[in-house]
Amino acid sequence: MSRTLLIAGAAVCALSLAACNKKTETEGAATPAEQAMTPDANPAATVPTPSDETAAPTFVEKAAMSDMFEISAAKLALTRASNQQVKKFAQEMIDAHTATTNDLTKAIGESGQSLTPPAALNKDLQDKLDDLTKADAKDFDKAYMDGQVDAHQSALNLLQRYAEDGDVAAIKAFAAATAPKVQKHLDLAKTLRDGLK
């Protein structure tokens, strides 16, 4: 009888230890839902680089389309925005993104790559531009600035990733030099957006 109690006691202890270890492993670990809800302070530092974004052809296509979208949206804002600060921002975006388009073209030439930037927006960006075109006049400034925050965050992520992991030195240098400029645009876009009523 004492042997049976000893075995039973050992089994209870083993099960208790297993249960404690299981609880310790999960305690403090975020559930997938919690992880998805917790934003990282620097998304570019932790979001894995999609493999195609480290290839020069894909980077050039996305960077060129980003500039095209910025210029097209800014031209629209110059004619439709009612806030003078938003119009000033739009003109700055035309000037800045025309310059980065030229810098990208120069970097492609220096790289020796035979890459041709796209001549038109992809469907996703064209749809965003179409939506902005259809925005109600009283909502236009806010819609434009919301889009600018999103577009500049995407562009910044793309540039930072390529500057880190890109496959062509001259184009990596372009990405590294352009990222701080886009960060300034993003900060300004957030300030303007947050100031609109």
From TrEMBL:
Residues 57-192 form the DUF4142 domain. This is DUF4142 domain-containing protein. Residues 1-18 form the signal peptide. It holds the Pfam family DUF4142. It comes from Phenylobacterium conjunctum. Residues 29-53 are annotated as: Disordered. InterPro entries: DUF4142, Ferritin-like. It comes from the Bacteria. Keywords: Signal.
